[in-house]
Design a protein that fits this description.
By secondary structure, the protein is of the alpha+beta class. Helices cover 38% and strands 12% of the residues. The chain has a domain at 7-59 and 112-194: NADH Oxidase (3-Layer(aba) Sandwich), CATH 3.40.109.10. The protein is built from seven helices and five strands. It comes from Blastococcus jejuensis.
Amino acid sequence: MAAPLTPDELLTTTRAVRKRLDLTRPVPLELVRECLEIALQAPSGSNAQSWHWVVVTDQAKRAAIGEIYREQFDRYEESRGFAGRLFADRPERAQVQQRVGSSARWLGDHMGEVPVLVLPCIRTGGPFQAVNQAGLWGSLLPAAWSYCLAARSRGLGTSWTSLHLPREAEVAAVLGIPDGVHQGALIPTAYYTGETFKPAPREPLDTVLHVDAW
């Protein structure tokens, strides 16, 4: 049963859930299917609907993916782009970023324990072309975000992650994903604890808005 959220509430309170994912409570596959049925209503280029969805509940496979993710997170945590060290010269932003970094570290350590892992994929039939890929991913990512919104409205938390993608082939081998099908994200899915989600602080719109010209 979906929660009675207005569209604006749903859109502004669907947060990246990490430490508040309930690792002990099983998630019914039927509930995940319900969220994916909603996701399939998203648009895709030429209405091709080239998406595929890999839902991982097997403990051993989740553990294998979790180990790949943890190793990738270790590398990310040492990089200049790590969330926890961004905006160090802006105290009001740095504090938020440090919390994000801590939360992300927790997920890095526990990804393999999350009850359900969802990998949205798209069939390309071959390698990527060396051109702007917005059109390709625009036929998958709206549906993946619709999945996250549907999950939120049904009491499930998600977090959009992509750190595993440099080792996409290894994850594909774990799951038997064929050549010519590419992963767009890794979305851990679990019931969440607490109900205090609220809009997050953001930079003012006018700092990023350009009307008629840059």
